[in-house]
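Researcher: Batch entry, complex prediction.
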Amino acid sequence: GAVVSQHPSRVICKSGTSVKIECRSLDFQATTMFWYRQFPKQSLMLMATSNEGSKATYEQGVEKDKFLINHASLTLSTLTVTSAHPEDSSFYICSATMRDRGTGEQFFGPGTRLTVL
Amino acid sequence: QQQVKQSPQSLIVQKGGISIINCAYENTAFDYFPWYQQFPGKGPALLIAIRPDVSEKKEGRFTISFNKSAKQFSLHIMDSQPGDSATYFCAARDYNTDKLIFGTGTRLQVFP
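Model: Structure tokens for the complex:
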């Protein structure tokens, strides 16, 4: 149980285009979903926190107009990278906490590798 | 205060040896301390986690030691295997925000 999926696993796009990444909790309802970005050989950096039906909360330095997060249901959150540029190339990872289990445990997705040409 | 300091940055261990990774924190609002294992190109996977009311937790070859007064915790991997070669991250959850703060990571290489 507690599986989180991401789609796509890998995407290559041209500079200036927008890319949408989906994060789904497959077998549980997620109270909160988190989006992280990881550059090569670096740690995970939290970008934003989203709760179903409400606006995402962005970390300092993360442009909310560039990284659009929609959390439409208890099992789906999407991250849209708008007008992507080469510096947005990174590994994007989502995680989710399980509703009704206040342990703080986050279940991570497999990640999405974004390459902007 | 929100940082989690992790060391060493990299670690080379011979097969069968013990791998030890250390983390330290300052924030007293941290109430959950997980360790994640990450292979290249994959998302992090929970390895083992501990809460501050326990000083040690063991699961198979993996043990967390937790020192609440020193605000330090460590991961011990006994009988290290080449398949354990990966990057390990410690983390701490802030119970006020539910956010996980990650350490900088340790790249472990286990040689046969």
